[in-house]
Amino acid sequence: MKRKEFPNWVVYQIYPRSFRDSNGDGIGDLNGIIEKLDYLKELGVNAVWLSPCYKSPNCDNGYDISDYRDIMDEFGTLDDWKRMIFEMHARGIKLIMDFVANHTSSEHAWFNEARTSRENPYHDYYIWRDEIPNDWQSCFGGSAWEYNEPTGEYYLHSFAIGQPDLNWENPKVRQEMCAVVDYWVGLGVDGFRCDVLNFISKDFGRGLMCDGPRLHEYVKELFGREETENLFTVGECSYGEDEIENICGENRKELTCVFQFDHFGIGRTGDKFVKAELDLNDLRKTLVKWQEICERKNLLYTLFTDNHDQAHYISRAGDDGKYRYECATAYCAMFYLLKGIPFIYQGQEWGTPDPHYSSVKDYCDVETINYYNAHKEEISESELLARINFGSRDNARRPLCWTQGKNFGFGEGEPWTKLHSRGEEVNLEKDRASEKSVFAFYQKTLALRRESEAIRYGSFEDRTRGEGYFAYARKYGEEEILVVVNFDGKSEISGLPEWEYLFGNGRRRSANGAYAPYETAVFRNRREG
Ligand code: TEU
Ligand code: CA
Fold first, then answer.
1. Among all ligands shown, which has an atom nearest to the Cα of 30?
2. According to the model, what pLDDT value does residue 387 have?
3. Position 529 confidence tier, pLDDT thresholds 50, 70, 90
4. What is the rounded distance in angstroms from the CA atom of residue 406 to the CA atom of residue 351?
5. Does the pLDDT at position 329 exceed 70?
6. Annotated catalytic, 195?
7. What is the Cα Rg of the chain in Å?
């Protein structure tokens, strides 16, 4: 697949555990995904990013892998997976697998061997020290070093204790992980989402847990080879303007693109569980900045608001109450008509908001539980619960609400985690029956992407002339598209061209005039050739 094709991709992220349970054991599975492939086609997506489905003891819900070449028991079998990719490809849907390169599960055969003795041939697949060498902290809280009794050493885990970091300085580790990539490519996989890829190179001398001096060398070894250089690869490794092209520039033979997370911090402090004042003008400025950088540097930009690690964007950086429909559709138009590759997280296409619970017992994510335990002595229970309701990754991992029926159509069995507290109010069946259907708006937006070269290949021009809204134009050949998105207040917008109205989420038909909160409209002009 050539790089210029990727702007035609629209990627849908599936978190398999919470997507659809086909066999009634309360856990989402691969056959549940197959059941919904026609739905994905109807939505208008043509690629799936599948969060890990490999064998795992699930200390981090699959991001702790115990066998890179086989499927987690609860999700099904390798034959189910082969049928799934066949059915995807039969519908023109590409499959992007999640590649977790930085760490394995502590129950992986390599680690079971490595931890038994310093002389074991697998011992140097991981990172060991006789004493704790520094104050590195795990991303999930606490020391990043765990004591291992049999060898009297400490091993490094940048994430959970059950996720020991691999030692990428060891050429055998690099060979093993290249073989994992080649194994899935051999089974027809079209690309990889690369989990915390920048952590695979560390620099102990400079105290760096990630972004070490050999990162580009390792990435080239993985994805710069003849067998892999044309894959779609997206790195979960946000970079600033100066570094980003070093890892996803066109001729780097490294990655296709990376997730740029600058806009994720809006509406919260550096602590993801703590709200901050939301100023959507900051969101506009961030999006304009990255549209202009990517246009200038000819980089592919990832367009996304949600994923499995974050509370829903409309809840934490928008309005999931009075203006839920307007906000969900405004953000759809704002993000997915920009220059780049859309990533849509399961359930956001019908405006799924965050749930709300009154007990920490209703949460299970390792990051959330660790956060609760680390703060419960110094913060009141009510404040701590408010924070967890605001920032927990569990918010995005509740079983999807497909229907009004039992378990909201997720499956027949008792779901693995608490059902969504707002499932009665917000589910796909109810949304599609409504005049104000978020799903229908997503369909229109993605249909416009498919038919408009201005959206897929066109230039970006910021047409905003004030605060409180975002207006931008996309141009290619004679076609021009104008997208106007009002933010949370009321706005009087002027100075915009009056082009043909295509669609919107309110009653307006002209680009200029008084806008209601989160009102959006899309217009088109065809210049005389
Ligand atoms: O997440 C990377 C990461 O940095 C996490 O700390 C994430 O940013 C955080 O949860 C946001 O608050 C990746 C995966 O997306 C995540 O699900 C895994 O838990 C993590 O790596 C370890 O594999
Ligand atoms: Ca199941």
1. 2
2. 98
3. low
4. 20
5. yes
6. yes
7. 23
Using DSSP, state whether 415 is helix, strand or coil: coil
Residue 494, H or E segment: none
The CA 27 to ligand 2 mean position distance, Å, reads 4
Query: What's the pLDDT score for residue 528?
Result: 83
| Residue 151 vs residues 50, 119, 128, 130, 155: alpha-carbon distances, Å | 37, 10, 10, 9, 10
DSSP 122: T
Question: H or E stretch including 487?
Answer: none
Neighbours of ion ligand 2 (CB under 5 A): 21, 23, 25, 27, 29
Residue pointed to by tokens 């059950």: 162
Contact indicator for 185, 144 with CB cutoff of 8 Å: no
Q: What is the pTM of this model?
A: 0.98
Q: In percent, how much of the chain has pLDDT > 90?
A: 98
Q: How far apart are the CA of 309 and the centre of ligand 1, in A? A: 6
Angle at CA of residue 350, ends 346 and 352, nearest 5°: 70
Could you count the other beta carbons within 10 Å of the beta carbon of residue 78? 12
Query: What's the CA gap between 502 and 105, in Å, rounded?
Result: 50
**3-class secondary structure, 504:** strand
CA distance 529 to 513: 30
Q: What is the mean pLDDT of residues 243-252?
A: 93
Residue type, 347: G
DSSP 128-182: EESS--S--B-TTSSBSEEEEGGGTEEEE-SS-TT-PBB-TTSHHHHHHHHHHHH
